[in-house]
Amino acid sequence: MIHSQRDPFSYLKLDDDVMKSVGMGRVFKDSTQRINSLDFFESDDLLVTASDDDAIRLYNVSTGVLLDTFYSRKYGVQNITFTHSPDCVIMSSKESKSVPSAQAQDVHVIRYMSLHTNTFKRYFKGHVGPVSNLSLSSRDDTFLSASLDKTVRLWDLRTDTCQGVLRLPPAAEAAPIACMDNQGLVFAVASEGGRILLFDTRSSEKGAFASFQIPDEAQSPLGFSDLKFSHDGTLISAVSQYGKGSVYILGAFDGELKRKFTNGIHRGYRNGGAGGGGG
C-alpha cells in the first residue's frame, strides 16, 4: 500500500488494477541530460531533481511549475534528498573519476544546501569513494550515506562530525545501498548477490542482527539501485540493477518475498496486497 504523508490514515492498496491505471500527470522537460535522482518533499507538493547537466531543479508538482534552478558546476550533483525543510537538501558529488587519496574526501563530500539562499550550510567529509545513496531519517536530523569506499556512515545535519561508520567487506564489488526505517531504529544495507543486512542504529558496530538473500539475485554482480522500508516498517522494497531491473517487495523481518515486479508485470507469492505503508 501507499501511505499518504498528508493523511496518516489514508492508504492506497497496490494491486494489478491500480498499477495498470497509473498514468502521467505532469511532464517536465527542462533537463538537458539524464536526471540521476529526485525526491518529493514529505508534506508539500514539491519535487527536487538532480541531473547530469549539474542542475538542481525545484518544481511544484501540483501546478507543474518550475520554481527555481540551481547549479553545482564544480563536482556535479546526484543523490538529491530533501531534509525536513522544503528549503534545504542534501546531495553528493557526481565526480567518479579516480583522484589522489589526499583529495578524495574533498571530492566525495556530502553537501547540505539552502535552496532559499543558494548557499551551502554544511559539508560532511569522510567518504573517499563516490557516494551511492543518501537516506534521511523521518524522525530526526540523522541520515545515512553509503559509498563505493565500502562504508556506510551515520551523520547528523546539526554537526559535520560523523556519528558512526560501518565498514563492509572490501571484496564486495557493487556499490552498497543503505536505508533507514521510519522509526530511525533499524537500517538496511544491500549489495551484490541479492543480500540484505539489517543493523540496529544504536549498535551497528556489533554487526547485522539479521540477513536474508533474494534467490533470483543470488548471481547478480551489480547489487541494487534503491532500497526502502514501508511506512510501518513491515516491508522492504528493493530495486535490482541486474537483468530486467526487478522490484522486490519483501517482509522486513524475514525477507519473505511478497511480490516481484518486472517491467510492470508482477508475480504474486502470497495472496493479498503488498500491505503496510508505502516506502
UniProtKB/TrEMBL annotation:
<keyword id="KW-0853">WD repeat</keyword>
<protein>
    <recommendedName>
        <fullName>Anaphase-promoting complex subunit 4 WD40 domain-containing protein</fullName>
    </recommendedName>
</protein>
<dbReference type="InterPro" id="IPR015943">
    <property type="entry name" value="WD40/YVTN_repeat-like_dom_sf"/>
</dbReference>
<dbReference type="InterPro" id="IPR037867">
    <property type="entry name" value="Swd2/WDR82"/>
</dbReference>
<dbReference type="GO" id="GO:0016070">
    <property type="term" value="P:RNA metabolic process"/>
</dbReference>
<keyword id="KW-0677">Repeat</keyword>
<feature type="repeat" description="WD">
    <location>
        <begin position="124"/>
        <end position="165"/>
    </location>
</feature>
<dbReference type="GO" id="GO:0048188">
    <property type="term" value="C:Set1C/COMPASS complex"/>
</dbReference>
<dbReference type="Pfam" id="PF00400">
    <property type="entry name" value="WD40"/>
</dbReference>
<dbReference type="GO" id="GO:0003682">
    <property type="term" value="F:chromatin binding"/>
</dbReference>
<dbReference type="InterPro" id="IPR001680">
    <property type="entry name" value="WD40_rpt"/>
</dbReference>
<dbReference type="InterPro" id="IPR036322">
    <property type="entry name" value="WD40_repeat_dom_sf"/>
</dbReference>
<comment type="similarity">
    <text>Belongs to the WD repeat SWD2 family.</text>
</comment>
<keyword id="KW-0539">Nucleus</keyword>
<feature type="repeat" description="WD">
    <location>
        <begin position="28"/>
        <end position="69"/>
    </location>
</feature>
